Structure formats: C-alpha cells, structure tokens
C-alpha cells in the first residue's frame, strides 16, 4: 500500500466539512462506510492509478481482473473524490433509508462489479465496431459509474418532479441522460462509457431482470431473508415521505418461522370460512345450549367437563 504524498487537499477538506455538517450520526452505516472506504483508499491507495484503472487491454487481454474491484475505490485527485463522495452522501442517505442497510450494501457491491463489466463490454464493442484499438487502452477510475446507477434508482423511487441541469428544468426520468451529456460537454476528460455503464446497470435493476436475479441469489444463501418494503404516507399536498416496513413490525433481517394459521381457520379458504360461519350461526339460533365450540378451537378435557357441568346446572 502506498501513502499519497502529503499536501493541501481542498476537495478532501470540503468533503469532511460536509460530512460533519450533516452529522455522522445522521448518515446510515453503509453510506458512511462507503465514504470512509473511498477516503481511506484516496489517502492510502493500494496501487498507483495506472495499476488500478480499468481497461479492456489490462483486464481482458492481460487477465488483471482485480482492477474490477480496485477501480471504483480509487480517484484521480481530491476534487474527483469530493464530487463523487458528495453525491454518494446524498444518494446514500435517501436510498439506504428506503431500502435498508443490508440490501443497500448488496446493491453497492453488485453495482460496483457490474458497472465495471458493462464498461469493458462497451469499450470492447466500440473498439471492434470502429476498428479503433485506443478504446481498448482507455483506462477509467472512480466511483462515478456506480453513482449514475444509484441516480437511476433514486429517480425510479422518486418519480415526477424536475431536476436543474445547467439552469434548465429536466424531468426526473430524463435527468440521468441530461447529466450524462452535460458532464461530457463541459468535462471532456471524464469517462463517457463509465457513466453510461452506470445508467445501463441502473436500468437493468429497475426495468430489467437484475433485481430478481439478486433476490434469487440472496435467497440461495439465506432462505429467510426479508426484503424491506416501503410504506408511504401522505398529506394534503400529496406524497410526502416513506417509511421502511417489515412484515412483523421490526427491522430484522431474518423473519421468524411463519405461523400456522390452520389452527385458527381449520385449513379452510376465506369462502369456506364464511360459508361455515353462516351455517354455524344459523344452527346456533335454534340450538344455543347444545352448540359445540366454534371450529378451529379445542377445549381441554378439564374445560370440557366444566362446560358440561355448567350446562347441567343451567338445565335444572
């Protein structure tokens, strides 16, 4: 591990100031851990950028696949780190509170890996289509591809509304594409393919099969996993927020063994229960004294004897 040369990193100082302004206690754990990990690798990079950036030539042709793991966690300079982590701070707080920490950690891990894979496929396809080998050597580094994927998720969960892009109001559903174009118009050195890969991964999750695949894979390792659902609340002006909802009213990752409701319903369907209840109710009207206990309930022998004794006394 190499320690970055010391100097005044204004971007890092601004990032730390923003984190403490929000308050560490107000940042969900996975978001906070992601920020801390990226800051740590900025100050103490595992490898020089030339050995951690992602390219078709290095990964595919030279089989250096560890770059898929290293490239999202390394940044070119302090301003690169600041803009990415400031965006991660806001998106992480919104999405982690909505999705739950464990599922959000799963998303971050999957998106980090998949964004790199999609980036390599895009670069390889462009190089083949245009017969331009420079695209194979183009090397990308940074967390921004993952952030574009998270941006797609955030816009998906918060539809409607507008985002200000270069002073123009843009609908949320088109914001990712507008920002993709705007960034590369005004910052031509950034990785267009890397950001596009993030958008595609986000769409694979929201519109494609990725979410189902992730749920299936998670179920293989833990068949009792509970996926948090959102419970929305409203006021007179419309949608106003959300709350995480868990099946048994507690934020547990593992749910308890399902209850056997047959002991209460006698294994009947809702229609059968209704028919049985109506029939028993009509029978009870003409036979109130000798009626058996309701279906689904069983009296102990002592309670049955006490019931018969009370019935005899009542009859006398």
UniProtKB/TrEMBL annotation:
<dbReference type="GO" id="GO:0005789">
    <property type="term" value="C:endoplasmic reticulum membrane"/>
</dbReference>
<dbReference type="GO" id="GO:0004252">
    <property type="term" value="F:serine-type endopeptidase activity"/>
</dbReference>
<dbReference type="GO" id="GO:0031966">
    <property type="term" value="C:mitochondrial membrane"/>
</dbReference>
<dbReference type="GO" id="GO:0033619">
    <property type="term" value="P:membrane protein proteolysis"/>
</dbReference>
<keyword id="KW-0472">Membrane</keyword>
<protein>
    <recommendedName>
        <fullName>Rhomboid-related protein 4</fullName>
        <ecNumber>3.4.21.105</ecNumber>
    </recommendedName>
</protein>
<keyword id="KW-0378">Hydrolase</keyword>
<keyword id="KW-0645">Protease</keyword>
<dbReference type="GO" id="GO:0043066">
    <property type="term" value="P:negative regulation of apoptotic process"/>
</dbReference>
<dbReference type="GO" id="GO:0051247">
    <property type="term" value="P:positive regulation of protein metabolic process"/>
</dbReference>
<feature type="transmembrane region" description="Helical">
    <location>
        <begin position="139"/>
        <end position="157"/>
    </location>
</feature>
<feature type="transmembrane region" description="Helical">
    <location>
        <begin position="177"/>
        <end position="205"/>
    </location>
</feature>
<feature type="signal peptide">
    <location>
        <begin position="1"/>
        <end position="25"/>
    </location>
</feature>
<dbReference type="InterPro" id="IPR035952">
    <property type="entry name" value="Rhomboid-like_sf"/>
</dbReference>
<dbReference type="InterPro" id="IPR022764">
    <property type="entry name" value="Peptidase_S54_rhomboid_dom"/>
</dbReference>
<keyword id="KW-0732">Signal</keyword>
<keyword id="KW-0053">Apoptosis</keyword>
<dbReference type="GO" id="GO:0007283">
    <property type="term" value="P:spermatogenesis"/>
</dbReference>
<keyword id="KW-0812">Transmembrane</keyword>
<keyword id="KW-0221">Differentiation</keyword>
<keyword id="KW-0256">Endoplasmic reticulum</keyword>
<comment type="similarity">
    <text>Belongs to the peptidase S54 family.</text>
</comment>
<keyword id="KW-0744">Spermatogenesis</keyword>
<feature type="compositionally biased region" description="Basic and acidic residues">
    <location>
        <begin position="300"/>
        <end position="316"/>
    </location>
</feature>
<keyword id="KW-0496">Mitochondrion</keyword>
<dbReference type="GO" id="GO:0034620">
    <property type="term" value="P:cellular response to unfolded protein"/>
</dbReference>
<keyword id="KW-1133">Transmembrane helix</keyword>
<feature type="domain" description="Peptidase S54 rhomboid">
    <location>
        <begin position="63"/>
        <end position="206"/>
    </location>
</feature>
<keyword id="KW-0720">Serine protease</keyword>
<feature type="transmembrane region" description="Helical">
    <location>
        <begin position="103"/>
        <end position="127"/>
    </location>
</feature>
<dbReference type="GO" id="GO:0006915">
    <property type="term" value="P:apoptotic process"/>
</dbReference>
<dbReference type="Pfam" id="PF01694">
    <property type="entry name" value="Rhomboid"/>
</dbReference>
<dbReference type="GO" id="GO:0030154">
    <property type="term" value="P:cell differentiation"/>
</dbReference>
<feature type="region of interest" description="Disordered">
    <location>
        <begin position="281"/>
        <end position="316"/>
    </location>
</feature>
């Amino acid at each position: 591990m190499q320690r970055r040369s010391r100097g005044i990193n204004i971007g890092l100082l601004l990032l730390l100031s923003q984190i403490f302004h929000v308050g560490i206690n107000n940042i969900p754990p996975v978001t906070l851990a992601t920020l801390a990990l990226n800051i740590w690798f900025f100050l103490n990079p595992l490898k020089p950028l030339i050995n951690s950036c992602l390219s078709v030539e290095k990964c595919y042709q030279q089989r250096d696949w560890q770059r898929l793991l290293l490239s999202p966690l390394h940044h070119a300079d302090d301003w690169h780190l600041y803009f990415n982590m400031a965006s991660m701070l806001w998106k992480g707080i919104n999405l982690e509170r909505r999705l739950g920490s464990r599922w959000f950690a799963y998303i971050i891990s999957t998106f980090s890996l998949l964004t790199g894979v999609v980036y390599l496929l895009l670069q390889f396809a462009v190089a083949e289509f245009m017969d331009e080998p420079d695209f194979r050597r183009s090397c990308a580094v940074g967390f921004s591809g993952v952030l574009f994927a998270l941006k797609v998720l955030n816009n998906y969960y918060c539809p409607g509304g507008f985002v200000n892009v270069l002073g123009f109001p843009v609908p949320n559903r088109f914001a990712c594409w507008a920002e993709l174009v705007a960034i590369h118009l005004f910052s031509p050195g950034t990785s267009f393919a890397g950001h596009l890969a993030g958008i595609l991964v986000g769409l694979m999750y929201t519109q494609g099969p990725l979410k189902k695949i992730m749920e299936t894979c998670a179920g293989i390792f833990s068949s009792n996993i509970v996926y948090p659902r959102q419970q929305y609340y409203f006021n007179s002006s419309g949608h106003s927020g959300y709350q995480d909802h868990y099946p048994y009213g507690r934020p547990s990752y593992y749910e308890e063994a399902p209850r056997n409701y047959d002991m209460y319903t006698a294994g009947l369907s809702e229609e059968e229960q209704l028919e049985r209840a109506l029939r028993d109710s009509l029978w009870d009207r003409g036979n109130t004294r000798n009626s058996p206990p309701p279906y689904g309930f069983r009296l102990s022998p002592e309670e049955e004897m006490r019931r018969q004794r009370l019935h005899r006394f009542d009859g006398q």
